[in-house]
Amino acid sequence: MTTTDEETRPTAEERSAFEEVWARPRGWRRVLTSVQHKSVGTRYMVTAAVFFFVGGVQALFMRVQLAQPEQQVLSAQTYNELFTMHGTTMMFLFAVPFLEGLAAYLLPLMLGARDMPFARYNTFNYWCYLFAGILLYSSFLVGMVPDAGWFAYVPLSGPEFADKAMDIWLFGLALAELAAIGAAIEMIVVVLGMRAPGMSLDRMPIFAWTMLSVAVMIVLAFVPLLVGSMLLELDRNAGTAFFDTERGGDPLLWQHLFWIFGHPEVYVMFLPGAAVISQVLPVHSRHRLVGYPFVVAAVVVTAIMSLGLWVHHMYTTGLPPVTLSFFTAASMSISVASGVQVVAWIATLWSGRPRLTVPMLFSLGFLFTFVAGGITGVMVASAPFDAQAHDTYFVVAHFHYVLIGGMLFPVLAGLFHWWPKFTGRIPSARLGAVSFWLTFGGFHLTFFPMHLTGLSGMPRRVFTYDATLGVGLLNLLSTVGAFVLASGFVLAAVTLLAALRRGERSGPNPWGADSLEWAADSPPSSPNFGRIPVVGSRAPLWNPPPRDPELDRMAAAFDHAPQNVRATPFTTVLDARPSTAAVQASPSIWPVVTAGGLALAFVGLLVESAWVVGASVLVIAAGFVAWELQNERELGAGEAREPVGGRYPVEAPGPRSPGWWGATAAAVVLVVAVATVAFSLLFLEVNAPVWPAGGTLGRPWLSAGTGLAVVLAIAAAWWGSRHGPLDHAATPEARGAHLTAAATTGLAGTAALVLTVAQWVTADLDHTTHAYDSGVLALLGTLGVAIVLGLGITGSALVARLTHARDVRPRIMLQNAAMLWAGVLVVWAIAWAATDLVPGAVV
Amino acid sequence: MTAVPATRPRTVRAAVAAVLIPPAAWVTALGLSYLVQDFACTAYTSSGRPPPSTVIGALVIGLDAVLLALTLAAGAVAWREHRRAAGDDSPLTGFLGLLGTALSLGFAAGIVMIAVNPLVLEVCA
Amino acid sequence: MIDARIRSVFPPAGGVADRVDGHLQLLLVAGSVVWVIVVTAMFVAVLRRRRAERTEGDDGVPGDEPGRGHLVVAFLGGVAPAVIILGVMADSVLTLRDTGGTADASRAPVVVEVDGRQFWWEVRYPEHDVETANEIHIPTGQDVRVELTSDDVIHSFWVPQLAGKVDLVPGRTNVVTLHADEPGTYWGRCAEYCGLQHAWMRFVVVAHDEPEYAGWLEAQGRPAESPGRTDDGAGGPDGGDETAGGARPGAGPDTEEVAAGREIFMSSSCVYCHTIAGTEARGTLGPDLTHLASRQMIGAGVLPNDRESLARWITGPQDVKPGNAMPGTDLSEDELDALITYLESLE
């Protein structure tokens, strides 16, 4: 165990072999197959910037229409389409994806890793997002632009009042949400497992803490929207009754599901913005962030409390006062957490020596603006005040203060801050400062008057207003401001792009910053770090490296190594001690194929062509199978692969490899999904005036059989995962055990699927008659989808067994399958409780 | 076989638990307060029976009180670990202890703000 | 014309809006003070003069100094805002207690049913068998219980000077309490996006003192003077105080033109959608026109109620307000004149 203790520098051949394994593909192959986090992150950010431009132009059109009372520049129809697409674009196609891209680019660098944990899945998510954007904007080509608002309240978005434009919107949304949930799983795993040796939780950058919190929020909050949009789609095209009051449904259910997503969404945008400030402001103040533990606490409090604010979008729907007040309490509590962050930033400025660089200017602009938006946020959090301000321009002003002030200014601060890292060039400080003053001035000129416009009685989402309202001047100011603001954004973009050619060349760390991304080259090489840095403090570049032989051993083992496979250190969750080596994916064509198949499926559903849908299913299936085969082939290639540095196994069971975390996260996603459906059913049951009496599914034996089959699947997979040695050896007994386990799991899962379908068929339910029937079938459907996913991962385990000689990989895959099947069991339990236990108990 | 240290697992585990409990308690407090109050009142109203406001209110406050106690207990443990860690020179535990203390206080305040509502407002209006 | 300020949240004119106004002022003042303090602190933090000994070289960065910084962040950032928030929350809950409860029938002697339609308001007085559209008349000094329903999409009922918004949700009956201290006209509108013409879904609340209100109710309860027959000898309505179209064709028996206009109305498709009490027109899809001439606006606020506007509306409703449910009617100029004269007689 001491052989690697002495430092042996890698030889030139080793270095070039290392670079070879990390080589980027070239030409068109690079476009379609690159999976590296920097290229994926860049694509996210560039694509999002394009959508930001489009959404911004839409806003300018709206401002022109509203510049004077009763203008006719746009028709009511066009205006309604524009505000719908502006909101949809900015939320789903710009803000969240941009931040995911920033995180995909920065997190591995900041944490000292070489790539995201599941790089191909990461790429798949990007393609899903891109196709979602294309799908949504194809609505302009076919002349069916969504016009029900970005919140799409039923019944206005329901089958009776909206045409196919709404289906385009729902499918585009579903695809974008799928991408966001996937990105969240990536972020959770990279932050928890792939930190540089020594970067214990208390030394983690605030940005990493924040993206971890945000990722948890996404899993808990975006899944309900995904489910909600599927329920609405079923109502629209399959005749279910979730939102139809005539048949036991309730339009308010949509509002609950939408805002359970919608409010956390706001913090999904703001928290990363704040995190960028927490990274940028200390560097340009030359002082560490004051009150780090409290800032972490504030981030966690904000993330958690954001999950409990959603009813404050529903203050006027006629809920009882005490319900409103619970959520007023939550909405107001959350502002204390923002107070902590604001004071921490000001204290940092106070203690340090701030330099008025461009990133600093945007940070100060952020503080100035965001605090105002936060305060109006406290105001609208108050239910009685909100009854006046709700759905007026006061709210428009409020959330633009929070989103532009709280997310866009930080993004610009971050872009100017990290541009040298991204491109190796420093953008012009002078042009940057001009762009700051234009955006800052333009922003306040646009949005400050809107507070007054709103209190003067002008509601949102109106294509015009009459002169007697007396808000013509205020609106004119807003319109002028909007153009100033737009010019500021354009100048910022020009400044950044011009720097690509003309900017001063930057070294690795032009700002003298503290976090690990500044230890990499500018721009970073494909593997980011030839030698992985070790961390002994919260500001690793401002403090001497730790003297810890255990950490140094890991750094030495990974010094330009391994050279036969892409890999990065995997460390323990709490204190980031060396654990194993995580394999990182190489370029692959299959993510884009599979995502394309998925998009094609939605297109097929939209044009109602069974052929297209059928073809897309084949593409998806083929894509996933080829993807899995490629995974296993590559992992199997180094059959005799030694542990890295003789010490860190390339794969290990349990939480010591990324797969376990991925399977756990997938199980959680399934559970959240079924919990959402169960909540919906319960909500409808208590709110409907008439509900089928004694409404239980009433198939106890089939239901129990399903549960039992799932238990058997878990047990078999678990049993199989206990067999076989952990090193690179292969034993016939283990092989037999794995095959038996995979086969048993597969059979049990198939039985569970058959029993679920049997419940569906025999249950004597018609999903079109009543929301109860629709809900029960949705629960069974969710269970069915969960079981299919379980079968999928079981199939992967089987493929792993068949393609590998050594035993550890099939072991791990069976263990992951067991994790996912455990999730399926919880899904089954919740579904059973909602269909039989609760109705039975109530009766 | 690998270099996974097994140092001071007990205190770290206590500190981690103290970090995780307050958020979970707050979510539970809000969720249960809302579900119990809104769903119970609505269920009674939908079925045309007068809802037992006092009972529902008391139930909500009782649930919140239990969760508040849990949150504060987690805070006490976290503070103890924080103080202890200062002596042991284990910065991670110290940090988690301080984090847990801050979370406990923040979420405790949040639970109190939720729980007072049934005292002031009519539970089933 | 109507005072511009009259549609603002300020000044409130009674009831819920009055109570909320105090809360609103508190929020505005407290919020502004906090903002000024924070931004001042930020500027001072950036611009304050540093003592020489705190100057570090470009790579000298102060290390971790938890003590004082932690206390500042915890107390100024956590405890101080929490105290302010608790105060604001208390005021919010108390305001909600005073305003949020639905007025029960005993407390609110007047009940009005309002049904939101794309894109207009049907208004009914169930105790008096009165039906009208886009105008709610209420007595001053009393709580009025407005019961809100919708059969199509979600709308939201908002009279800024009298009360906050309450949504009209299909499948539910929501309630808002209106209370006007002074007689006058208060503007209201739909505040929840409800489709193409959401912008033009307005109404007015007209508050009368008690006797005037009783007179209005009584007049509305009867058919207009000349709805169907010439010998309808009803007395003139004494409550028509603020009628916009002043040209009323004498309270006597039918003129020829009115009769002709009635004939056109009854023989065209108008009757399928509109009701005029006392005639065979019994349609329910569009607004009740029994007392059309007594209303201030047509098309839910899109046009004033005068001859010219009526002509524009009847011939081209889809040009004036695209997407509303009314089809255009093809009429010769004479027919149109007669029809409008008839409609203007419906007072």
How would you sum up this structure, described in words?
The complex is a heterotrimer of chains A (843), B (125) and C (347). With 843 residues, chain A is mainly alpha-helical. In chain A, 68% of the residues lie in helices and 2% in strands. In chain A, the strands form two sheets. A two-stranded antiparallel ribbon of chain A has the order 1-2. In chain A, α11 runs parallel beside α14 (429-455) and α14 (429-455) runs antiparallel to α15 (472-502). The longest helix of chain A is centred in the first third of the chain and has 36 residues, at 76-111. Chain A is globular, with a radius of gyration of 27 Å. Chain B has 125 residues and is mainly α. Chain B has one domain (11-120). Helix content of chain B is 82%, strand content 0%. Chain B is built from four helices and no strands. Chain B starts with 8 loop residues before the first helix and ends in a 5-residue tail after the last helix. Helices cover 35% and strands 18% of the residues of chain C. Chain C has helices spanning 15-47, 66-99, 210-221, 256-267, 270-273, 307-315, 317-320, 333-344, and strands spanning 110-117, 120-125, 130-133, 135-139, 144-150, 155-159, 163-168, 174-178, 184-190, 202-208, 297-298, 303-304. With 347 residues, chain C is an alpha+beta fold. Chain C has two domains: 1-44 and 72-208, Cupredoxins -  blue copper proteins (Immunoglobulin-like), CATH 2.60.40.420; 222-344, Sandwich (Immunoglobulin-like), CATH 2.60.40.420. In chain C, α1 (15-47) packs antiparallel against α2 (66-99), α4 crosses α8 (333-344) and α6 (307-315) packs across α8 (333-344). In chain C, the strands form three sheets. A five-stranded mixed sheet of chain C has the order 3-2-1-5-8. In chain C, strands 4-10-9-6-7 form a five-stranded mixed sheet. The chains are: A mainly alpha (843), B mainly alpha (125), C alpha+beta (347). The interface between A and B is large, with 51 and 45 residues. Chain C: Residues 107-219 form the Cytochrome oxidase subunit II copper A binding domain. Chain C: It catalyses: 4 Fe(II)-[cytochrome c] + O2 + 8 H(+)(in) = 4 Fe(III)-[cytochrome c] + 2 H2O + 4 H(+)(out). Chain C: It comes from Myceligenerans pegani.
